[in-house]
Amino acid sequence: MAGDVNQGVTVSPSTAAVKSVAVSTTPARSTVVSVDTRVASDVTYAKSASLSQNRQAWSNPVQDDVSAIMVRNSARRQSDGLAAQWRGLGSAVLSQFAATGTAYRQTLVNYDAAGMGAGSAKELDQAALDSFSSTVAKASLTVQTRSGTTVELTLAVDRGGVLGRNGLQVEIKASGSLSSAEKRALAQLAQGFDKALEGLGQADQPRMDIADLANFDRNVLKSVDLSVKNPGEGELLSSFDLHLGADRNAIAYAGALGKVDVDVNAQMPLGRTDDKQRQASITELLRQVDAAAQRSHADSRLVTLFKDAFSQLHSATGATGARIAALSGNPLSGRIDPMLSGLADFNASFSGAFERTGRFGAVVETGTASYLLSQETTLVPSAQADTWKLDQKQSESLVAQYVKSRGDVMLDMSSGNYDVFTVNDSTEKRTTVSVVEGRVSDAQRTTEQNLLQTMKKLVNFKVEEEQETPVNRSQLEILQPNA
């Protein structure tokens, strides 16, 4: 806004009056595009706008690369999803701010003047800007520097379609001035920011792509947060929250496919582990997720979102945590570390409804699935010198129910003829290491697995057949510490 000052940050001039791009639609004449580049307060309009005009209203002068991208993106088809409106815009705003340190705000509204009523072009443009929806799809990036400065970037997409209107709005500002190192660190976020939005905004299926954004300079930046709110019924992406920091790395997604939550405790103390061990643990856990997805019949798109969020957060810079105090510099660490997972503690889950179609395109199955996966590591000290106990527990649970037609025909619940399946699984793997007077006295791993699947065959709403398939396993493994 005009005259805004953000504690040392210079704000580019902004006027309340409007810049306009008018497009003549008279069939007998060539299309003419005119752009007024004078300051908005100098614009005068002698006549009312033509009721047949498609117009562009701007809140500020159109004279930068960001505005050019806004024009391009606003012309893309809405059916291409939010990714089309966001494409390249976030990185352009972030790069411009990193180069200049100057706050920036711009709004573009495309509208049909025919539906705006009487008034001059200036009045109609201002009315169009004032109508920019408060229920837009909004992506917000918040960056905290280690010096205490906060940078906030917002991209808003108005896809309301009221009176032929659609628009884009961008804003970036900081709570104080930035050092050259902070500007460089912000510029390095640009491409990762674009990749994250490009994945989330896909029209057919949201995609997690936060690896580059998570790889920020943690010596300069303290935390990075990305939030997306997309109001409306049936949106594949309704909300998304990403936090990357020294305390934790977390993702929360919600949309038509269901919910995904992954929270990695980046401060959880770990032993010394290399990338190979960590990746091996991630691969094994993802194999377990695939097995659960197969048993529950969960939507493959939701499962893919979960797996990508899980692996990318665990692979993020800073996700390896600090060392357990008892192992820090302890000669035993080389023997104990390989017994652990090599991962920071975490809580992860997905849940959602699903349906499947048969070869003729009709729905033949519908259901819900809920999955939980977690790890908790605790260190229990003793009053005796060099004596303690380490416990690492991984827990997994799956609850699902689905209804399926027989013979791959359309599922008709009102007929009372279908099969009902339920799945209720739980697995716990616990690794314990006991150290007495500086020596490993005991190291073992126990695994308890309880799987249960039931099937009920309904004929005319009555249970004609019922099957129950339980699987129960217990395993004890004595771990041999490496020499």
Give a verbal description of the structure.
By secondary structure, the chain is of the alpha+beta class. The chain has two domains: 236 residues, no CATH class; 224 residues, no CATH class. The chain has ten helices and 17 strands. It has a 17-stranded antiparallel beta sheet, sandwiched between helices. Strand 15 and strand 16 form a beta hairpin. The radius of gyration is 29 Å and the shape is flat.
Keywords:
483 residues, alpha+beta, 17-stranded antiparallel β-sheet, 21% helix, disordered N terminus
Strand content: 35-45%
Proportion in helices: 10-25%
Number of domains: 2
Principal-axis shape equals flat
What is the CA-CA span between the terminal residues? Answer: 67 Å
Count of DSSP strands: 17
Low-confidence stretches: 1-52
Number of helices: 10
Major sheet: 17 strands, antiparallel
Q: Given the helix and strand composition, which structural class is it? A: alpha+beta
Average pLDDT value?
A: 84
Q: Over all CA atoms, what is the radius of gyration?
A: 29 Å
Write the element-wise H/E pattern from the N-terminal end onward: EEEHHHEHEEEHHHEEEEHHHEEEEEE
What's the helix and strand layout?
Layout: E1 19-23, E2 33-35, E3 54-58, H1 65-74, H2 82-86, H3 89-100, E4 104-112, H4 121-130, E5 137-145, E6 150-158, E7 166-174, H5 180-187, H6 190-200, H7 211-214, E8 221-229, E9 239-245, E10 249-255, E11 258-264, H8 275-296, H9 300-315, H10 333-336, E12 346-357, E13 363-381, E14 388-404, E15 418-436, E16 439-459, E17 462-478
Antiparallel strand pairs: 1-2, 1-3, 3-4, 4-7, 5-6, 5-8, 6-7, 8-9, 9-10, 10-11, 11-12, 12-13, 13-14, 14-15, 15-16, 16-17
